[in-house]
Amino acid sequence: MTAGDGSFAARAGARWSALVEERRIPQHEIGGLAHLDRSDLVADAVSDRRVDGVRRRLDAGSSSLSARSRIPRPRLLYASLAAQNGCVPSSPTWFANRRDPAWSAPSPDRSAVEFHRQLAGYAVTPLVELPQLARELDVGRVFAKDESQRLGLPAFKALGASWAVRRVLERVGTSAPATIVTATDGNHGRAVARWALHFGQRATVFVPGVVHPDAVESIRAEGAHVVRVDGSYDDAVEMAFELGREHGHVLVQDTAWFGYEEIPGWIVDGYDTLFVEIDIQLAGCGVRRPDLVVVPTGVGSLLQAAIVHYRQPGDASTAVVSVEPESAACVHASLLAGGRTVVDTGSTLMAGLNCGTVSTLAWPAIVAGLDAALVIDDPSISGASQALADLGVDAGPCGAASLAATRNVLRSDATAFRRHVSVDAHATVVLLITEGAAANPW
User: Fold this and answer.
1) Minimal CA–CA distance to 419: which of 91, 62, 25?
2) In sequence order, which residues have a C-beta less than 8 Å from that of residue 176 and are 6 or more positions away?
3) Domain topology for 94-155+270-433
């Protein structure tokens, strides 16, 4: 580390101490592993540093920027964390979280549900019962929530983006055109671009280099200016933040960090529509509540929405589990480490889940309300996607992750997993199929 980098690290450390003093960091993150969160604070401090030429390239309309040469970002290796902390997951493919059974979440803002119902093109997405999978998994009933067509887009992200853009424009006004900026690994950026245009605004979307070219073109087709980033999703988020701050644009991001949590919270509120629909659909099938809900997870915002929905006062019996690619399992690694942990991300078929940092807004809900974190590899995805397609459910890699991981854990560690999440042969399981095959070509 250079002397300059050290000074930024020192500034981050001072900021950390101030946040603890102000009690802005939850008590459970102040313990022996709390230093792991400093990676985010160091990154924030380093991002204050200007690098010659970057602003000029942005102003010139460059469509490709290098993030790694610009913002040094600390990384923590998952394996070294396990060794350092003497922790062992429940198995190599899942972690059993000991949630607080007495904890309940604040009530979500249900005005987003009414907003969605009034939109042209709104329709409840299918909840498909799959008895063949129920027999395979040895449970009572399996339902797939099919998000392959949501408000004209091939993924659930339109729910959060539409509500957040609406709330942002209520705040800033529409007397003059605004530019909305975001970062994406696919679906969120396309949804933000669609809804910015819908409300008569412009959009700039930062995209990491691993995103499939067809997905990038889909974002451009929505009318957005796309900036390719030579780096990870986290790098793209940092650069979107920089552009918004320097040019007065509005950042609509689906992940949160200290000081930026209101807009990501609106996105989480938007996702609640999906779970309200599931409640109504299950009731029509004679099911009061699901026993297990399986959630494909990137930064954790959809997972947060699921936890908030199923941890309302009075009945917290539904088990909620996350699913991440093994190359970007930031929730799994953070639970293992005992604090939010930044992980290096690699290439994965599950492009929409290729995120290395858990949202600060989601993390307290995850610690208090998540039952288990599952990890799945790429080779398991194609079989799950094909199985769903054979049953009439259109699932891209991220959408198929819920079935792939559930299959895997029930084959490799069924007894321990079933006991932990209280799933027996009579249980009702809901798999969130978060995207269709058109969302992320593979």
Assistant:
1) 91
2) none
3) Rossmann fold (3.40.50)
Neighbouring CB atoms inside 10 A of 313's CB total: 9
Pick the closest to residue 384 from 173, 137, 102, 152 (CA basis).
Answer: 137
Q: How far apart are CA 36 and CA 175, in angstroms?
A: 44
CATH architecture of the domain with residue range 158-262 = 3-Layer(aba) Sandwich (3.40)
Summarised one tens digit per residue, pLDDT across range 175-211 is 788 999 999 998 999 999 999 999 999 999 999 998 9
Phi, psi for 100 (deg, rounded to 5): -85, 110
How much is the pTM?
A: 0.82
Biggest CA-to-CA distance, the chain: 65
On whether the CB atoms of residues 186 and 211 are closer than 8 A, the answer is: yes
Question: Rounded mean pLDDT of 1-30?
Answer: 34
Each residue of 341-395: pLDDT tens digit?
Answer: 999 998 999 999 999 999 999 999 999 999 999 999 999 999 999 999 999 999 9
Give CA–CA dist 368/373, Å, rounded.
13
Q: Which of 141, 103, 110 is nearest to 310 (CA)?
A: 103
> What pLDDT score was predicted for residue 18?
43
Asked whether the domain spanning 158-262 has the same topology as the one spanning 94-155+270-433, the reply is yes
Return the domain boundaries, the chain. 3-74, 94-155+270-433, 158-262
Looking at the predicted structure, is the pLDDT value of residue 23 above 50? no
Q: Which of residues 84 and 217 earns the better pLDDT score?
A: 217
